[in-house]
From TrEMBL:
Family: Belongs to the BBS5 family.
Stored PANTHER family: BARDET-BIEDL SYNDROME 5 PROTEIN (PTHR21351:SF0), BARDET-BIEDL SYNDROME PROTEIN 5 (PTHR21351)
GO cellular component term, pick one: ciliary basal body
Domain BBSome complex member BBS5 PH per the UniProt entry, residue ranges: 39-93, 175-229
Gene encoding the protein: BBS5
Protein's cellular compartments: Cell projection, Cilium membrane; Cytoplasm, Cytoskeleton, Microtubule organizing center, Centrosome, Centriolar satellite
Name assigned to this protein: BBSome complex member BBS5
Coiled-coil residue windows: 286-314
Gene3D superfamilies: Pleckstrin-homology domain (PH domain)/Phosphotyrosine-binding domain (PTB)
SMART domains: DM16
Alphabetical list of Pfam families matching this protein: BBL5 (PF07289)
Length: 382
């Protein structure tokens, strides 16, 4: 479909493949000191041992926006990197360290799956501090991993996603739309599909006019090259995606040619800027997260504390007295039904209630029978 007859290439930077979140690596030189562009360390967790791979070596756990890194502070060559995309299961557990008299300690368990190979990691707190046993010292790993799962559109190519609503692109946080181009033909099929381009500072989006679910979201991070080449439909914009983005060759035709060239230059410029400083969409403040956890724990502790001022001791003798009179009245009525003259049960007019009722027996008042429960309880003080 696309012929290599004359082509126009922009000055594009060398693409650095994104592998940090998709691989599990061991003992890589300078692993923890040479992070890729755009990768940020979000939290440090000290006094951590790689109990399965390097028992006895105290190290440090680093949580970045792409992966978890552990490196030994005893032997500099020992380290490992676990990309968040390789996480299969993770949890915390209490383990007993043999080196410290089987003292219980908190540990982070990670099951990673890479190239159909399963890796199990156990990172144990070896600080010996009792207070750390009750604290969520590995909370940042779980928090950042959840953020990573929700920000895949910043990193990965997405086909047929729920990214368009009523003809409008659903904007990501930190995303700015620079231009929208209509009348763009997707040359992935022989007849072509007419749609629209949305160009932002993070990605290039195309969606079909007839069916919004037929779309593609392509981050600049997954674009290997941009070209204008000749096709059987005329000049076309050709996008080669990276190997981590599927290695696709995408073709789009835009009329007239001047409009195509303007879009090509804009994309080359945005691609260059983004590669130099990519945005992975993850914002996390470890200190703020710890403060929120501490506040929540304090609030929960206060809620469970018994406060005498929140309670009022009531005199239950009033309730017992009223209930006793009513019950006694009803009981006496049942016993005396057969021994009482019918004239004693003739109705009389009650001024308080405004209607006729059975005559109340001696020793009882209307108030005793009317108020089954007291209307106002008095505070009982010893």
């Amino acid at each position: 479909m696309l012929k290599s007859l004359g082509q126009t290439d922009g000055q594009q930077p060398q693409l650095q493949l994104l592998w940090e979140d998709k691989d599990v690596k061991f003992d890589t030189p300078h692993l923890h000191t040479r992070l890729r562009t755009g990768e940020k360390v979000l939290d440090y967790i000290y006094h951590i041992e790689d109990s399965k791979g390097n028992p006895g070596d105290t190290g440090r756990l680093m949580v970045t926006n792409l992966r978890v890194i552990w490196h030994s502070l005893v032997h500099k060559k020992y380290n490992l990197s676990i990309g968040f995309a390789r996480f299969g299961n993770t949890n915390t557990r209490i383990v007993h360290m043999h080196s410290k008299g089987r003292m219980p300690s908190q540990a982070l368990y990670i099951l990673a799956i890479s190239n159909e190979t399963r890796f199990e990691f156990l990172f144990t707190d070896v600080s010996g501090e009792t207070a750390r046993r009750e604290q969520p010292i590995f909370a940042s790993v779980f928090d950042v991993y959840q953020l990573y799962q929700r920000t895949y559109l910043y990193r990965d190519l997405k086909l047929r996603g729920a990214i368009v609503l009523s003809g409008q692109l659903i904007i990501l946080p930190d995303e700015q739309v620079y231009s929208q181009v209509q009348g763009v033909w997707n040359l992935s099929s022989d007849q072509g599909n007419l749609g629209s381009f949305v160009v932002s500072n993070i990605r290039l989006v195309w969606f079909a006019d007839a069916n919004e679910t037929f779309n593609i979201s392509l981050p600049y991070l997954q674009i290997e090259s941009l070209r204008v080449r000749e096709s059987k439909y005329g000049p076309a914009l050709v996008i080669q995606t990276a190997e981590t983005g599927g290695g696709y060759v995408l073709g789009f035709r835009i009329d007239p040619a001047d409009r195509l060239n303007e879009l090509f230059k804009e994309l080359c410029s945005l691609h260059t800027v983004y590669i130099e400083q990519p945005n992975f969409g993850i914002h996390y403040d470890a200190q703020d997260a710890r403060q929120r956890l501490a506040d929540a724990a304090e609030e929960a502790a206060q809620a469970t504390q018994f406060k005498i001022e929140n309670f009022e001791e009531l005199d239950e003798r009033q309730e017992r007295e009223i209930n006793t009179k009513l019950n006694s009245y009803l009981a006496e009525g049942c016993v005396s039904n057969n021994n009482t003259d019918q004239s004693d049960r003739e109705p009389v007019y009650c001024k308080e209630l405004g209607f006729a009722m059975e005559r109340i027996r001696e020793g009882y008042k209307l108030q005793d029978l009317w108020n089954v429960m007291p209307t106002k309880m008095e505070t009982f003080e010893e």
